[in-house]
Amino acid sequence: MKYVIINGSPRRKNTWKMVEQVKSNLNGDFEEIHLMKEKIPLCNGCFKCIVESEEKCPHRDIIKPIVDKMMDADGIIVASPVYAMNVTALLKNFLDHTAYFYHRPEFFTKKALVVVSTAGAGQKDVAKYIDETLRHWGVNKVYKITYACGGKDSIDAKAINEVSRKFARDVESGKLHNPKLGDIVFYDVWKAMACSNEPIEADREFWIKNDLINNDFAPEIKLNPLKKAFSKMMFFVLSKFIK
């Protein structure tokens, strides 16, 4: 198995200790990406990645190699401590550079693990934010490990081991899970936008090229009958409003 680790912490303290504990439960090769070392310029909000295509991002030469490694991996690990009740600026800046995945999701066959630590509070909300972002990207299943160390230089290995082993078994199984209803709604929103009378051309080309526009969900995922019917209904309704 191949795992890529996106480390959003500028230090190697508790968050990284948690990641190292996670790694001890996984069998495979690891690609570590420490965002502090990548020196990604701040996203300037030009919207080129969304409106024109990700290839037009002015920082594409830095972002693309990271994205390529994520696409090549079987499992994705995203780690961040809580900074001011949110992810670190390093991770937020990277996520801002990948905003186009909200329109053009690509990770339907991937599993992910979110690792968040805090000295005080906010760890569950931060993990939820990363989880929602990854699900918008299309990620099939997201696991979460959160830990409040209370300012102590320590980690809870037992809780980390339990979740990381579940993550490892899932990645190794190759099983693809049915999406949540909310994820199907998001899919149908972007699909309806790609089918609209005035779509973002980069979106339309992507949805046609990857045969997403003709499916109720990503072709790799076999929806059960109820979710298939739900997706058809949602797309019908949304396409009436998004013209």
From TrEMBL:
Keyword flag Flavoprotein: yes
GO molecular function term, any single one: oxidoreductase activity
Keyword set, alphabetical order: Flavoprotein, FMN, Oxidoreductase
InterPro entries: Flavoprotein-like_sf, FMN_Rdtase-like_dom, ISF_SsuE-like
E.C. no: 1.3.99.24
Family: Belongs to the SsuE family. Isf subfamily.
Domain NADPH-dependent FMN reductase-like: residue ranges: 1-137
Naturally occurring in which organism (per UniProt): Methanobrevibacter thaueri
Entry coiled-coil feature ranges: none
Gene name of the encoded protein: sgcG_2
Protein origin, superkingdom: Archaea
Cofactors required: [4Fe-4S] cluster; FMN
Pfam families assigned to the protein according to its UniProt record, in alphabetical order: FMN_red
The protein's name: 2-amino-4-deoxychorismate dehydrogenase
